What does this fold into?
Amino acid sequence: MKNIIVHTTNNNAYTIITNTNKTTTKVLGMLKHLQRLLLRFSTYDNPYSYNIEVATQQLLEYADEFGIPIDTTQLQDQQYLNELHKKYELGFNGQAEWLLYHEAIHMFEAIKNHLTDVDVRLTYGILSGPLDVKYDWDELATCQPNIEFGDCYVAFSELGKTPYHYWREGEPDNLERLCQLAKPMLRLNFQLRICVNPQPLPADIAEFEAWFSQYRGAWCRHWGIPAWTVEQMFGGIKIGTMPDVDKFIAGLKDNHEPLRLELVDA
It folds into this structure.
């Protein structure tokens, strides 16, 4: 088994001590190839950059790439954000600029819904796509909601929403649209997360569960899975731990970003 070294832009290095499980083995197999590349680290991947000014600048910049007009007075309106998201659904063609546009919308949703205590993401963006593999159900059954400070894990990273976020963000109350926009964890792509903000389940989970109960069976059949739980929507599969996460966070706050990853012998 290998461990993972996170190299940062100020020449520091932080070790992720890996677990032994099926998902970790798949992740390390991907990283064997990807470690030759630099990480794609954006404002969306850094929880300490989540603010209105950053999100607005990013949205305006990348919407302009596609000739999409933005009314900045409506960016706190979820229905307006949903309309901007539909433009992404219709236009996305694999270009990295579309993903940055998409990320800006989700930053606004996180800020508006007070969900900005996100974790650090380490990803190669679209460059890792050819290495994506499907999750096995026995892997998904190991999702745990109690991700702890310093844990390295994989979680929901589809180009879509979880059923909870679909409901929370006021999308149409019908099964067809739910199946279009909301997904389970289908593909394991290379997006590692470092837990810097452990989170309890949202307070409105019971209300969501009551709503989702009318659709859960049909939605699971649509995606070909036997079940899908709140723990799987909000949790993740732990693949390791970063012992020096406090120092890693201090570096992020000083704008020392993750630059590249390296596999080393455990």
